[in-house]
Amino acid sequence: GVGHIVERAHTADPEKADGKGLAKGKLGLIGSTVMGLASTAPVYSLAATLGYVVLAVGPQAPIALILHSHPRAGGSMQDRVTVQLYKLFVDFGFAVLRFNFRDIGRSQGVFDNGMGELSDAASALDYLQSMNPSAEQCWVGGYSFGAWVGLQLLMRRPEIDGFLAISPPANHYD
Questions:
Q1: Contact (CB, 8 A) for 63 and 95
Q2: N or C: which end of the chain has fewer CB within 10 A?
Q3: Residue 98: beta bridge partners?
Q4: Distant-in-sequence, close-in-space partners of 73: CB < 8 Å, separation ≥ 6
Q5: 145 membership: H or E segment, kind and range
Q6: Both ends of the chain: CA-CA distance in Å?
Q7: pLDDT in tens, the chain (174 residues)
């Protein structure tokens, strides 16, 4: 299961906060989110950016998890395609989470050739769902390696309603 969650987000005006430390209708940065990756795995810190459009769409806003390209090829949540995918979902009124897989940026852990990153994605989705328990839809979007991880997650999580797989690596994995 998911371990405890520690988050830091900043808003200039506390009167406009949504109760989660984020400005309503604005994007917030979770500087450090601690998620248990599996019951037997160590707990890692994954750096993430979380977008809420609370006022515009309400508590039943759909959710989307965005996954970046291959970490060993320079992929991160700041990748140009990943950022555009994130913004696309935000523009459509989704509550969106994008994060760095283990060993990227401020995320802890060691690259695990896909299995650990799948666990990262599952924990991130658990977190996103816990923050949005009334979401009407759940989507996953990924770019390159992130598309492959997203498709693996899709096969294991029946609550995922839709997905976008941008340039999945068709000949590198099973």
A1: yes
A2: C
A3: 49, 66
A4: 144, 145
A5: helix 145-156
A6: 26
A7: 222 222 333 323 333 334 343 333 333 333 333 333 332 345 556 666 555 433 335 678 899 999 999 888 888 888 999 999 999 998 898 988 888 888 777 777 788 788 889 998 998 899 889 888 899 999 999 999 999 999 999 999 999 999 999 999 987 766
Looking at residue 99, its pLDDT comes to 86
> Which pLDDT score, from 0 to 100, does residue 72 have?
85
Closest CA to 104 of 93, 84, 120: 120
Under a CB-based contact definition with an 8 Å cutoff, are residues 21 and 7 in contact? yes
C-alpha to C-alpha distance for 12 and 99, rounded to whole angstroms: 23
Query: Which DSSP symbol is given to 57?
Result: H
Structure tokens at 67: 């996954």
DSSP secondary structure of 79-129: -HHHHHHHHHHHHTT-EEEEEPPTTSTT--S---TTHHHHHHHHHHHHHHH
Q: Please name the amino acid found at residue 54.
A: V
State how far the Cα of 81 lies from the Cα of 73, in Å rounded to an integer: 14
Q: CB of 142 within 8 A of CB of 101?
A: no
Query: What is the token pair recorded at 96?
Result: 């969106």
pTM above 0.90, yes or no: no
> Which amino acid would we find at residue 52?
Y
